[in-house]
Design a protein that fits this description.
Elements lengths: L2 H11 L2 H18 L5 H10 L2 E3 L34 E5 L5 E2 L1 H14 L3 E4 L5 E6 L4 H9 L17 E2 L14 H11 L14 E4 L14 E10 L2 E10 L11 E8 L3 H15 L10 H8 L1 H14 L5 H4 L27 H8 E3 L5 E6 L5 E3 H14 L4 E3 L5 E7 L3 H10 L14 E2 L13 H15 L5 H4 L3 E4 L13 E10 L2 E10 L4 H4 L4 E7 L3 H15 L6 H18 L40 H21 L3 H21 L8 H13 L15 H9 L6 H32 L1
Parallel strand pairs: 6-7, 7-8, 16-17, 17-18
Antiparallel strand pairs: 1-2, 2-5, 3-14, 4-5, 4-13, 8-9, 9-10, 11-12, 12-15, 14-15, 18-19, 19-20
Helix pairs in contact: 1-5, 2-3, 2-5, 4-12, 7-9, 8-9, 17-18, 18-19, 19-20, 19-23, 20-21, 20-23
Length: 750
């Protein structure tokens, strides 16, 4: 079949709007190929079509999987062919995680034909295909559209995937099934003109109840928690609506915008929020362009007032409520009759799998079976065979989860042993879902341009070690969540883990060593109810020791009924910092070469000439010592904040940044230590010269120093001081990275 006839056949089955969008994108692609579209403009265009740039690593991922599609060297950075042959990532939107067997099969085929045969499930229920060439994306998008899937606005400055609890409709504690509402919001916002002028991305999420993790509403730009109320004997459905949550370098908890918005109001209310965000949100400084910063600046009361004003002037749109007319006729239904699980023993391993991977639905006789995916990965072949299992037992009742797994819903309990055996045959019956073994990780240095340390490598190592002893672990430890991010951006959601890690580096004796910052005490439940606290950075290779020590101390010291969050709060940052501090030492390259590599990557992280110290002592530069002192000051600031001494916390945080800045300046010239001089010299020597700029941050970590110096300690509440402390940690990390870059440049010049 010719390309033309193949496309015509797809055109007949694609939704008209999706077909038109892909045609437009293909035309833009051709113009870019001819050099008739500016690269910067086209970059946002392709991002809004879900095509994302990725780290280029000579066709070899750190987990050893080779991509057959990588046949061109990376392009030069000038001219119309910029990055043309560099492979990228395609993110595929899966609203609230719902996917049919047919859709899974198509994605599996695309992964095999255009990618490396791996489907990666993300923490926002999308599917990502890596190592995809830009030339292939229009055909890939058409084949997705033919089965009702889009990549539109999966990346870029728009409304990202609408996520939601994978148990919606079958959960034992939910208020009601929000699935139709999530579907309606997804379709309403897709390409909506009021959502095309955002300064940054906008992530919505749904939860069926307030107490569980569900959709993690507390960490989202906009979130909806379902609940009901009775008025004059009539039960009404509605949502508590939140806005302004987010993780990243400055985590914020979402704030209540509307208490019990009727279900007919969530679409217009969201439209009003989008209009306020588009009109007043930051556009120039992308680092402050998320809605959380706008709400923090305005205050939630003023933001709420502006949204209410905007809602009043919105022209009526029948889509706001038309989906409610048939809401009860589109419910998910089982394909097989409910029967109880037989009392007889199941196949070998079934008991362990059933204990962790099976959830009893609120509908008698049915269960949800979780397919735990290490690192969120599933092969094309596994996906095809999983689609067959789904057709046999549950039909279209398949969803991805925010913990990078897949679930089969509406499994008749009597079918569970057979489902287990079929999953076992395709390598998808791993037990431990929802336990400490089920570790979440972002792509990190495998494919992400921003990755600093190997999150997937570390997560894989921790999973292997924990899986080997999982049945020997104390129950309190088995229930913990571990999440890993490759950098401070928290794509692995380390802020809301019991034990979280995010990648950074340190310069040890002139050698760059991969590290992970340890974050403890985040709260997964209550819709991401609380964020953890950073307690110190440790070498990547020592993280497993840290996990073992933390788990052991928790089991030994916790009181009756004391949760991990309670225990970390009781110990406080000072004690937790001392615990982690025992693991900060790094052996020399001669003593332990592995300590100088990252997990999952046999290559040395970096190598520099090493000096020989006096009397076999360690060679430590004065800059290293001063930056370490700045870290200590920041640590003390956090303790002051924990003790509600905002003035002291603010002062110490600012002084820590000043100390780090002064340390950098003194590598060039000894200058006085007053704040005005330090800030002036740092700006002239490191900011204006862009020495402090890395490839991606572009100096953003320096701006909080300038802002705090100019404004003075004019803070309104604890959240502002918390933000300053986050900025301080990032400033010190950036100072370390600045030294590494300068030292590397000097070595190269010798």
């Amino acid at each position: 079949m010719s390309d033309a006839s193949w496309k015509e056949r797809l055109q007949d089955v694609m939704p008209a709007d999706l077909a038109e969008e892909i045609d437009v994108f293909e035309a833009q692609l051709e113009l870019r190929r001819q050099g008739k579209v500016d690269e910067r403009v086209f970059a946002e265009t392709r991002l809004r079509r879900g095509a994302y740039g990725q780290r280029y690593d000579n066709g070899q991922r750190h987990d050893g999987i080779e991509s057959r599609r990588l046949v061109f060297p990376e392009a030069e950075t000038k001219g119309p062919e910029t990055h043309w042959h560099a492979p990228g990532m395609i993110r595929i939107k899966i609203p609230y995680g719902g996917a049919s067997p047919e859709q899974l099969e198509v994605i599996a085929e695309l992964a095999e034909e255009y990618s490396d045969g791996i489907l990666h499930i993300t923490t926002r229920q999308d599917v990502q295909l890596h190592y995809v060439h830009l030339d292939d994306t229009p055909d890939l998008m058409r084949r997705l559209a033919a089965v009702g899937i889009t990549t539109r606005e999966a990346c870029g400055n728009g409304v990202r995937n609408v996520t939601g609890c994978h148990l919606a409709g079958v959960c034992r504690t939910e208020a009601f099934d929000f699935t139709p509402h999530a579907e309606a919001l997804f379709r309403f916002l897709l390409g909506h003109p009021d959502c095309q002028d955002f300064g940054r991305k906008f992530k919505p999420a749904f939860s069926g109840c307030a107490g569980e993790a569900c959709g993690l509403v507390g960490m989202h730009d906009m979130g909806y928690v379902a609940r009901t109320r009775e008025v004059d004997g009539v039960v009404e459905r509605g949502f508590d609506v939140y806005a302004g949550g987010g993780l990243g370098t400055n985590p914020y908890q979402a704030k209540l915008v509307a208490e019990f918005a009727p279900e007919s109001e969530i679409l217009p209310l969201t439209q009003a929020v989008a209009r306020v965000f588009a009109r007043l949100g930051e556009k120039k400084n992308r680092n402050r362009a998320r809605i959380k910063f706008l709400i923090n600046s305005l205050g939630i009361d003023e933001f709420r007032r502006l949204v209410e004003e905007e809602r009043e002037i919105l022209p009526h749109d029948p889509r706001w409520s038309s989906y409610l007319d048939d809401i009860d006729s589109e419910r998910e239904e089982p394909t097989r009759p409910s029967e109880p699980l037989s009392a007889k023993d199941g196949p070998d391993g079934f008991g362990e799998w059933h204990a962790t991977n099976v959830y009893r639905q609120r509908q008698d006789g049915y269960a949800v079976a979780t397919i735990a995916l290490p690192l969120g990965d599933i092969t094309s072949e596994q996906t095809r065979r999983l689609a067959d299992v789904a057709r046999t037992y549950v039909g279209d009742a398949v969803r991805t989860t925010v913990e990078q797994n897949i679930v089969l819903r509406w499994v008749s309990e009597a079918d569970l042993p057979a489902v287990y055996e079929e999953l076992l045959a395709i390598g998808l019956a791993t037990p431990g879902a929802g336990t400490v073994v089920d570790i979440t990780a972002c792509p990190g240095t495998d494919t992400c341009k921003l990755g600093i340390a190997s999150s997937r490598g570390l997560a894989g190592e921790l999973r292997t070690r924990l899986a080997a002893v999982q049945y020997e672990l104390d129950e309190a430890v088995r229930g913990l969540r571990i999440k890993v991010s490759g950098c401070f951006n928290s794509c692995g959601q380390h802020h809301i883990a019991d034990i979280g890690f995010f990648g950074n580096t340190r310069n040890v004796d002139g050698v760059t060593i991969p590290h992970f910052q340890v974050v403890l005490g985040g709260k997964w439940r209550d819709n991401a109810g609380a964020f953890g606290q950073a307690v110190g950075a440790v070498p990547s290779r020592r993280v497993p020791e840290v996990v073992e020590e933390i788990a052991g101390r928790f089991v030994a010291e916790r009181g009756d009924g004391e949760t991990f969050q309670d225990w970390t709060a009781r110990l406080g940052k000072k004690e937790l910092g001392a615990l982690v501090g025992e693991f900060k030492t790094v052996p020399s390259l001669a003593e332990d070469p592995d300590a100088h590599t990252d997990w999952g990557d046999a290559r040395e992280f970096t190598r520099k000439d090493m000096g020989i110290g006096e009397c076999a002592g360690e060679v430590v530069t004065s800059l290293d010592l001063e930056l370490s002192k700045a870290e200590s000051m920041a640590f003390e600031a956090q303790i002051a904040l924990d003790e509600a001494d905002l003035d002291k916390a603010d002062t110490l945080a600012f002084e820590a940044m000043l100390h780090a800045a002064h340390a950098l300046v003194r590598t060039q010239e000894d200058v006085p230590s007053d704040a005005d001089t330090i800030v002036r010299e740092f700006r002239e020597r490191f900011y204006d010269t862009e020495l402090f700029f890395d490839r991606f941050a572009k100096g953003k970590f320096a701006r909080p120093l300038f802002a705090r110096h100019e404004s003075g300690p004019a803070f309104r509440h604890a959240e502002d001081v918390t933000t300053l402390l986050e900025d301080t940690t990032l400033f010190i990390d950036a100072a370390y990275q600045c030294d590494i870059r300068i030292s590397g440049a000097q070595s190269a010049a010798v």
